[in-house]
Amino acid sequence: MNKSTLKFIADFGPLLIFFIYYKKFGMTEAILPLIIATIVATGILYFVEKKIPKVPIISAVIVSLFGGLTLYFDNKIFFYMKPTIVNLLFASVLFCGSFFLKKNLLKSLLESSIQLEERGWELLNKRWMIFFIFLAILNEVVWRTQTEDFWVKFKVFGIIPITFIFMMFQINLIKKYKINV
Questions:
Q1: Which own/partner pairs from 118-121 qualify as long-range (CB within 8 Å, at least 24 positions apart)?
Q2: What SS3 class is residue 50?
Q3: 64 pLDDT exceeds 90?
Q4: Residue 76: which residues within 8 A CB-CB, separation 6 or more?
Q5: Residue 128 confidence (pLDDT) above 90
Q6: Could you tell me how many helices (H) and strands (E) the chain has, helices first?
Q7: Number of neighbouring beta carbons within 10 Å of residue 50
Q8: Distance (Å, rounded) from C-alpha 127 to C-alpha 27?
Q9: Is-contact 160 135, C-beta < 8 A?
């Protein structure tokens, strides 16, 4: 199996495992397999990339924390709110980096992949902040107004396409401010 296939499985495997267990056994019984799969996937990413990847580790900690709270207190609200809290956390980190630390943390994370003028990084950072807030609000609306089944489908099959579409809309900004090295 090549590196990109392993990375793809590590990125999306835990969600698929969660969905399969959810459909077969229900939400509570799907959380522990999700936690285990997320931790295993983080290990796979470490093995593939030969370094500790930041975002998957943060994800593993958050999934384990909120999944654990859900199981311990037998209260699904912790799990429903996980995407809201994660997205608000990401938005806050980008905001604090820009306005208090005077450092574009998105640039720090992505500059090895893309080279942009400072104005491009500023705009991209603001757009991601707004997008994370949008996802947090959307998650709150969905889990509070829809059925559990709908929320699970939204979490597994909705957030990824929404994020992909958002990313596609950033291509023109990236092209406009790209530094040709």
A1: 119/177, 120/173, 120/174, 120/176, 120/177, 120/178, 121/177
A2: coil
A3: yes
A4: 27, 28, 70, 148
A5: yes
A6: 9, 0
A7: 7
A8: 33
A9: no
Rounded-to-integer distance, Cα 140 and Cα 123, Å: 26
Rounded Cα–Cα distance for residues 129 and 135 (Å)? 10
- DSSP SS3 for 115: coil
Q: Cβ(15)–Cβ(156) under 8 Å?
A: yes
Query: CA-to-CA distance for 83 and 85, rounded, in angstroms?
Result: 6
Residue, of 12 and 141, whose pLDDT is higher: 141
pLDDT digits (tens, 9 = 90+) for 21-58: 999 999 999 999 999 999 999 998 888 888 877 778 88
* Calpha distance 60→55 (Å, rounded): 9
Residue 80 and residue 141 in contact, taking contact as beta carbons nearer than 8 Å: no
Average pLDDT, the chain: 93
